[in-house]
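dumping this here before i forget
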Amino acid sequence: MNTRSLWSRSLVIVGGIAMLLGAIDPLEGCVIILAGSACVLLGTLLGQAGQPMRSYWIATFVLMAVGVAAMFALGAFGGIGGKSGHSLWWGVLILPYPIGWIMGMVSLLIRAIRSIRQRQADAA
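structure:
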C-alpha cells in the first residue's frame, strides 16, 4: 500500500469516527462533524475514488457547511421560536446539516461493506 492510499484511508476512518462522535450531541458537536466530513472529503480526493464519489462528498460537505453556517447565523440573531420573534420556519435553513450527515453516514456504511467484501474476496 502506497503512502497516498494509506493517508486517504486514514483520513476517511478518522473523519468517519469524528462524524459519529459529533452526533452524540449534534448541536454542540457540529464543528466536530464538519471537521470530520472535511477529513473524509480530503481522504476521498486523495484516494482513488471515481468522480461520482468525489462529487458526492463535495455535495455532502457543502450541505453540512451550509446547515452549520445557518445554525450559527440563526443563533447569532437570537435563535428561532419562543420570544426571539423569528418563526420556526427559519429552522428549514438548518435542514442541509442533518441531510448531509445522513448522506455521509450512508456513504461510509456502503464503503465499509464494500471494503469487507473485497477483503473476503481477496482472501478466498
